[in-house]
Specification:
Elements (H helix, E strand, L loop, with lengths): L1 H21 L10 H12 L3 E3 L3 E4 L5 E10 L4 E12 L1 H5 L4 E8 L2 E6 L5 E2 L12 E16 L4 E14 L6 E9 L2 E9 L7 E10 L4 E10 L5 E10 L14 E10 L2 E10 L9 E8 L5 E12 L15 H8 L10 E11 L4 E11 L3 E11 L3 E12 L2 E12 L2 H4 L17 E10 L2 E11 L2 E11 L3 E11 L2 H10 L8 H5 L2 E13 L2 E12 L3 E9 L1 E2 L2 E11 L4 E11 L5 H10 L3 H7 L5 E9 L6 E9 L2 E9 L10 E10 L2 H7 L13 E10 L3 E10 L2 E11 L5 E11 L3 H7 L9 E10 L3 E11 L2 E12 L2 E10 L2 E2 H9 L1 H5 L21 E8 L2 E3 L2 E4 L2 E8 L2 E11 L2 E10 L7 E13 H4 L2 H6 E15 L2 H6 L2 E14 L5 H6 L9 H12 L3 E14 L2 E10 L3 E10 L4 E10 L16 E7 L4 E6 L1 H76 L29
Parallel strand pairs: 5-8, 6-8, 18-19, 27-28, 45-47, 46-48
Antiparallel strand pairs: 1-3, 2-3, 3-4, 4-5, 4-6, 6-7, 8-9, 9-10, 10-11, 11-12, 12-13, 13-14, 14-15, 15-16, 16-17, 17-18, 19-20, 20-21, 21-22, 22-23, 23-24, 24-25, 25-26, 26-27, 28-29, 29-30, 29-31, 30-32, 32-33, 33-34, 34-35, 35-36, 36-37, 37-38, 38-39, 39-40, 40-41, 41-42, 42-43, 43-44, ...
Length: 1201
């Protein structure tokens, strides 16, 4: 029974429940549309229209579904919903309290409007005055919120709104969490609101986050709803950093914290704090912002702070392997945000650290029109008391920063400023140097440029332009037009530029680029350069100069094009152009020598080759890696044509194969020879000179080739090998052929300057090592008709080349010796006398070498005749002298030894000639002129030393001094027979013979024989150019020869005389007496043509006088007897006269004695008379000498009466 009851109750319940589920479906709920619209209108405070179907189910909970709902005017609804699914709490629903437990709004669209006055209207009553509605859980599906600002006629749409909404009432509290799309970007949204207070303000918190995590916004504060809603609270904006690929790249988020006030017409950030990196708490910015909303939207923001710096680079970075920090910064600067409204921005920062440098006291005033930023003025300070100013327009070109404007940088200390991009060095030339730069800046895409720039430096203004590419195409294009910079300013300018050689950042920053540099004057490598032009481009593979020109660079001019490729270890240089050198001493040429590593010896060798004007072409070989260098043009006095074929190019010049072909042709042969470094000309002709060189080989293995110097039929040629040492010294071994019309030039090149030598045709084996060593072996040649052979060598001893060797000749010409000793110039000019009057000091420079050459010859000749026999001597020279030493020659049966030296080379025009001569058993006729040799005979022994000075040989002879002595064995003088004296003694009655007959007799008697002596000895002196033989006495057989002789060396003039007197002869008749028998021989003329004059007048007179004397002697004897008698008578008369004089003297003495006695007596009486007189004397006093005071003492002769 009980079970049945349960069954019935269960069936009833089922029926009831089935009715609750099924019955609503059969009800036409559309009939309740008005009821529902009225109910919804009461809740929302706005008219609600349900235009779609309505369905309702009661169980299991009240569920209402309807579609196409419009809130507000149908023409401009405040909201619309495509479909609504609402679930209510059953019991609250039955009590007419619509407590929604679940609500799904499909595609709801809410339209919010700000009218022209900025008042908010939604068409929905948000005051909460309507029927209560609560949403415990509402789900929004694909909704939209549209805000229309009638002030600006703009609409802001948030679409695809999905989320969960909890709502207690329209005035709160409520909560929404979901997502929405705005402006093509998805955002996560969270919004919470509390219950309003008495004034209608609700505390809310909101959170907005980009779905990709890029940034988020969190706001908390009080929201006052109404037609003029207002929010007053705090705002936190957080922007996530870019994703880091390495741990060192991790950065903190950007965080902006600020108190914010928001209304429909303004957003005010009254004081914000900006943390660019929240991990770096010490870096913060502060400021404020005011955003005006409405029809004239704009903003006004201020940013200030202490130190702001970019995050540091990783410590593991190698700066030299990375671009310059400025280049990296340009690539990393983000595009500025462009707010959708105009406004202004003021920035005031104490310091902005940009990694490589810092900006201090940054002041920036900028404004925007919503499309671009306009920097009115930006001022900051940099190191070196520098001030940088910037103004212009900043753009955001598709996310890339753009800028166009004016830039100015003024620095008081460029040395401190330059440390930003280069390491400082010692003695910085920029110390305390002011300068500046200004111009027009442009930043667009990946390019940064400076145009119309002006560089103020060194007291001058210079034009500058530059373009930097820092994106995919990294390059630098620079244009610089300089004025005139001296060495100090040039050094300072170089110190201002990046150190390209020492730092690798330049190549990394700008692997490609171009440049154009001009300068009116600049110091280049320590030398001033004028009118400099350098234009070209570089890349990772090469450096090209499309034009490199200098009007003058230390005496060098350049105009050409260059290309430098390869590496520093193996550079590859090609190019062409014109090279001009003004002089050998040009400093620019010395600099080129140093850069090219030309050895100093080569520089000396090329010294005479300049000036020059050459066309230079260095090109790559058509086949293979080689290069070809060609030079052509005017070089000094010659025309140069050079071709160098380098198998491995210029870089392999010292190690790989080289073929060199050079020709040098000079119309002026003397100038051409001087140009190639010959100290004296080898050729004296008038034709052109041609020098040529051909060699091929390599530096390590040496070269083979030929070199020649020629003029007409004359030539000097070398065939053989050549080697170059590391110091540039050239050595070789080969054959030398010489064909010269005059070999004096060869002697001068050897250092025997001025030596005249005849023509030569010779060959020799040659071995040389630079200028240190030179050896000629197996010399064989002909000079004129004389054949010669020998060996010569040269070695440098100390700093002086020294020659030695030997020469064997068929004969030696005396004139040739004179030419070798004194030079051709000294011999060529005839003088007034015998000796030439040419200058001995034609060249005042000291000889650069010394030498000693041993010479042997079969004969010494003069004018083709043999003068001496076997001859040997040393031809030697030093820097200040040249001489013939130790000359030994056979002279007849004797020997002649001679040393002759000319000295001294120097600045004075005079030269000295000194020497020594010794003779040993030399026949007089072997050396004396024929005229003398016929008159004199004997074997001569003697010695002579002499010295003279002058400008010519004639003057030397006029000033000659010296001394000498001689001895002549078996001396004989023809025509001076001493038998003349016995012949004259035998004359009968000489008193009656005429003088002419006596002179004839004397001449005939002298010619009957010769004066002969066993030996004749003498000494002579030379003074004032005259040799004086004085008091020469030769004791001969039966006669004596005595006299003196002078030889005037200037003209070889003779002046002297000799007297022939008898010796060991007594004339029994007394006619010939040794003291009066004198036959005089007078000498004159010259040594080559002596004049002998016999003067027998004295002898004739002596004979006549002696004959008269003999007669007079007889008469004299008679006269003497008569004189004896007369002398006795005279003696008697003298005795008597003497006796008379004696008696007179005695009488005078007696009288004087008596007179003296009387005087003495008077003197004794005089005092007595003076005492008796009482009156003074009336006569004047006689104060003179009294008589007798000055009388002579002693007995005096009695004067005559």
């Amino acid at each position: 029974m009980l079970n049945r009851i349960y069954i019935v109750v269960g069936i009833f319940a089922i029926v009831v429940l089935a009715g609750a589920f099924i019955a609503p479906r059969f009800i036409q709920w559309g009939d309740y549309r008005d009821r529902m619209e009225a109910l919804a209108s009461g809740v929302l405070g706005a008219e609600v229209t349900i235009r779609g179907d309505i369905s309702f189910s009661l169980l299991p909970s009240p569920r209402l579904e309807f579609s196409d709902v419009i809130v507000g005017d149908a023409e401009s609804p405040a909201a619309s919903v495509t479909a609504v699914e609402a679930e209510f709490a059953l019991f609250d629903f039955l009590r007419d309290n619509y407590n929604l437990t679940a609500l799904t709004l499909v595609q709801p669209v809410v339209d919010l409007v700000l009218d022209e006055n900025g008042l908010f209207s939604s068409g929905v009553d948000l005051s909460g005055a309507g029927s209560g509605v609560a949403l415990g859980h509402a789900r929004i599906v694909n909704g939209s919120i549209r805000l229309t600002d009638l002030r600006a006629d703009e609409m802001f749409i948030a679409s695809r709104v999905d989320g969960e909404l909890r709502l207690s009432s329209f005035v709160g509290p409520f909560q929404f969490q979901g997502a929405a799309d705005y402006d093509g970007r998805r955002y996560d949204v969270r919004f919470n609101s509390g219950a309003p207070d008495a004034v209608g303000a609700s505390r809310i918190s909101s959170y907005l986050r980009a779905a990709d995590g890029a940034y988020s916004v969190n706001a908390e504060g009080l929201l006052t709803a109404g037609m003029a809603p207002k929010f007053d609270g705090n705002l936190i904006y957080r922007q996530a950093p870019p994703a880091a690929e390495a741990a060192d790249d991790i950065r903190g988020s950007l965080v902006l914290e600020s108190a914010v006030t928001v209304s429909t017409d303004r957003v005010v950030l009254s004081g914000y704090t900006l943390h660019p990196d929240e991990n770096r708490a010490g870096m913060r910015l502060t400021g404020s912002a005011n955003i005006q909303l409405g029809a004239r939207r704009n903003f006004d923001a201020v940013v200030s702070g202490g130190v702001f710096s970019l995050p540091p680079r990783p410590a593991t970075e190698v700066a030299a392997e990375l671009p310059y920090e400025l280049v990296r910064l340009l690539a990393e600067i983000p595009a500025p945000p462009l707010p959708p409204m105009p406004g202004s921005l003021d920035i005031d920062l104490a310091e902005v650290g940009l990694r490589g440098f810092a900006l201090r006291d940054l002041r920036l005033d900028a404004s925007t029109d919503g499309a671009t930023w306009r920097i009115e003025q930006a001022v900051a300070h940099m190191p070196g008391d520098s001030e940088v100013r910037l103004s212009g327009t900043v753009t955001n070109d598709a996310g890339r920063l753009g800028f166009r404007g004016d830039f100015a940088l003024a620095a008081q200390r460029l040395d401190a400023l330059a440390q930003i991009w280069r390491r400082p060095g010692d003695n910085n030339p920029l110390f305390n140097t002011p300068g500046g730069i200004e111009g027009r800046l442009m930043l667009a895409g990946d390019a940064f440029g400076l145009s119309n720039g002006r560089l103020d430096f060194g007291g001058q203004s210079h034009a500058v332009e530059a373009r930097l590419g820092f994106g995919e195409e990294k390059r630098l294009d620079a244009v610089l037009h300089l004025g005139t910079l001296n060495a100090a300013r040039t050094t300072a300018l170089l110190a201002l530029l990046p150190d390209i050689a020492q730092e690798g950042s330049f190549g990394v920053s700008f692997p490609n680029g171009s440049f154009s540099l001009t300068a009116q004057g600049i110091d280049l490598l320590g030398l001033p350069a004028t009118q400099l032009v350098a234009e070209g481009q570089w890349s990772a593979s090469d450096l090209r100069f499309s034009r490199f020109a200098m009007a003058d660079w230390g005496g060098v001019s350049v105009d050409g094009a260059l290309r430098l490729a390869g590496s520093l270890a193996e550079p590859r240089l090609t190019g062409s152009g014109q090279l001009g050198v003004s002089a050998a001493e040009a400093p620019g040429l010395a600099a080129l020598y140093e850069m090219a590593g030309v050895p100093y010896g080569w520089q000396e060798g090329l010294e005479q080759s300049w000036p020059g004007d050459l066309r230079v072409i260095l090109s790559d070989n058509e086949n293979g890696p080689g290069q070809v260098l060609t030079l052509g043009g005017k070089l000094g006095a010659s025309a140069l044509d050079l071709r160098a074929e380098m198998a491995a190019g210029l870089a392999g010049l010292d190690s790989d194969d080289l073929r060199l072909i050079v020709s040098l042709e000079a119309a002026d042969a003397l100038a051409g020879q001087e140009q190639i470094g010959l100290a004296a000309p080898l050729f004296d002709g008038t034709g052109p000179m041609v020098a040529s060189l051909f060699m091929e080989g390599s530096g390590p293995d040496g070269f083979e080739g030929r070199a020649s110097l020629s003029q007409g039929l004359q030539s000097v040629s070398y065939f053989g090998g050549l080697r170059t040492a590391g110091n540039g010294e050239i050595s070789g071994e080969g054959t030398l052929d010489v064909l010269l019309d005059d070999a004096g030039g060869l002697a001068t090149l050897a250092g025997a300057r001025g030596a005249g030598l005849p023509g030569v045709d010779a060959s020799a084996a040659l071995r040389f090592s630079g200028k240190r060593e030179l050896a000629f072996s197996n010399i064989a040649g002909i000079s004129g008709d004389v054949a010669f052979s020998g060996d010569l060598s040269m070695q440098v001893l100390g700093q002086m080349p020294s020659f030695s060797g030997r020469l064997d000749l068929d004969s030696v010409d005396a004139v040739g010796l004179g030419l070798a000793l004194f030079g051709e110039a000294a011999i060529a000019v005839p003088g007034d006398g015998f000796w030439p009057d040419g200058p001995l000091a034609l060249d005042n420079a000291p000889r650069p070498t010394r030498g000693d050459i041993a010479v042997t010859a079969r004969a010494l000749t003069a004018n083709g005749a043999e003068l001496l026999g076997e001859t040997a001597f040393s031809y030697s020279w030093t820097p200040d002298s040249v001489g013939i030493d130790r000359l030994e020659a056979a002279a007849g049966e004797g020997r002649l030894t001679l040393s002759l030296v000319q000295c001294c080379s120097g600045p004075l025009a005079e030269r000295s000639v000194s020497g020594r001569v010794s003779l040993d058993g030399v026949d007089i006729d072997a050396l004396a002129p024929p005229a003398i040799g016929r008159g004199l005979d004997g074997a001569l022994m003697g010695g002579l030393q002499f010295e003279g000075s002058g400008q010519s040989l004639a003057e030397v002879m006029r000033n000659m001094t010296g001394e000498g002595n001689f001895a002549i064995a078996d001396f004989a003088a023809a025509g001076l027979s001493p038998s003349v004296f016995p012949t004259l003694a035998g004359i009968e009655d000489p008193l009656n013979i005429e003088a002419d007959a006596l002179e004839t007799l004397i001449g005939l008697s002298l010619g009957q024989g010769s004066f002969a002596a066993r030996e004749a000895r003498g000494a002579f002196t030379i003074a004032g150019g005259t040799a004086r033989l004085a008091n020469l006495i030769i004791e001969g057989n039966g006669g004596r020869l005595a006299g003196s002789l002078n030889l005037a060396l200037a003209r070889l003039g003779l002046d002297g005389g000799f007297v022939l007197t008898p010796r060991d002869y007594v004339d029994p008749n007394g006619l010939i007496e040794p003291d009066s028998a004198r036959i005089i021989l007078r000498l004159g003329g010259t040594l080559a043509a002596p004049e002998v004059r016999l003067d027998s007048g004295e002898m004739v007179a002596a004979i006549q006088v002696r004959a008269n004397e003999l007669e007079v002697d007889r008469l004299e004897a008679l006269r003497l007897e008569d004189e004896a008698r007369q002398r006795a008578a005279a003696e008697e008369r003298n005795r008597l006269a003497e006796e008379q004089r004696r008696r007179a003297a005695e009488e005078a003495a007696r009288r004087a004695a008596e007179e003296e006695a009387r005087r003495l007596e008077q003197e004794q009486l005089q005092p007595e008379l003076d005492e008796e007189q009482e009156t003074a004397p009336t006569q004047p006093l006689d104060l003179g000498f009294q008589p007798g005071v000055t009388q002579p003492i002693g007995s005096q002769p009695i004067p005559p009466n």
